Amino acid sequence: MSFGSDLELHLNFFVDCRRFFIRIDDVKFVLVTGVLALVQRTNAIVKGNHSRRTTVFVKSCLAYAHITIPSIIDPMRRLHLFLLSGQISLSNNLVTQAEALLKAAIGYIPDLAALEPQRKPHDDDVQAFIASLANTLIVAPGHPEFVPLHSFTCIASLYLFVTCLRATGTARSTSSRASSTCPRSTPAPRSTSHVT
User: Fold this and answer.
1) Sign of the dihedral through C-alpha 118, 123, 125, 131
2) Spatial CA neighbour of 188 closest among 66, 32, 65, 61
3) Half-sphere exposure of 106 (CA within 13 A, CB side)
4) Phi, psi (degrees; rounded to nearest 5) at 19
5) Can you tell me the distance from the alpha carbon of 132 to that of 114, in angstroms, rounded to the nearest whole number?
6) CA 4 to CA 49: how far, in whole Å?
7) First and final CA of the chain: distance in angstroms?
8) Which end of the chain is more exposed for a tag (fewer CB within 10 A), N or C?
9) Count of domains observed in the chain
10) What is the DSSP letter of 182?
11) Residue 188: inside a domain, yes or no?
12) Vertex 133, ends 190 and 165: CA angle to 5°?
């Protein structure tokens, strides 16, 4: 469905869809990717030079994604959507949003070790995701309060943790120990857009 050049109306449509289809993973996946496409479309229209109004709009879209992604059950879909959202944030020069989304992706990695065997992703898929995440972190500005390459050290530690848990079959309770090293981001801030 298209709303032409009225991108805010399109975002409102996505908000309504989430309310009615909150329990269907496939729908939420389509909604998040659709909202991220709105961000990219906006960025193309302004040619990377956002006004105050378009900045508020793309931040609203990214807040929508940040709020919706955690409710997606499939763990790899959830991780890839956080990563994609972070990458799109960087492409729009929204470093704060990118940091929160990438941090959320890192924070969910330990959960992979606690999944039931039938839900655990293949090791190759996890390795490919972490490689993509590391590539993105290369261009992401580092946090001034941490040592250089803090994020790389963090994801390396988490990957080793997940690998060890799979090898030993350690129980779910231990995953919280790794999460404390690189905690998940705080909840996404409320949108300041006038979209309802």
Assistant:
1) positive
2) 66
3) 28
4) -65, -35
5) 22
6) 21
7) 19
8) N
9) 1
10) S
11) no
12) 100
Which among 119, 105, 103, 124 has a CA at the least distance from the CA of 172?
119
d(CA 4, CA 76): 32
Own/partner pairs for 19-24, CB < 8 Å, 24+ apart? Answer: 22/71
Range of the domain at 157: 7-179
How far is it, in rounded angstroms, from Cα 189 to Cα 97?
10
Task: Please say whether the beta carbons of 17 and 27 come within 8 A.
Answer: yes
Question: What three-state secondary structure class fits 146?
Answer: coil
Q: Are 73 and 103 a contacting pair, CB within 8 Å?
A: no
Quick check: is 190 in a domain?
no
Spatial neighbors of 25 by CB under 8 A, at least 6 apart, are 72, 73, 74, 77
In a domain, 185, yes or no: no
State the Cα–Cα distance between residues 131 and 122, nearest whole angstrom. Answer: 15
Q: Which two tokens stand for residue 179?
A: 């999460």
> If phi over 0 gives left and psi between -120 and 50 gives alpha, with beta otherwise, what is residue 149?
left
Q: What is the band of 159 on the pLDDT scale with cuts at 50, 70, 90?
A: low
Torsion of CA 88, 80, 143, 114, to 10 degrees: 160
In a domain, 187, yes or no: no
Does the pLDDT at position 187 exceed 50?
no
Global pTM value: 0.76
CB-based burial label for 56 (10 Å; 0-12, 13-18, 19+) = middle
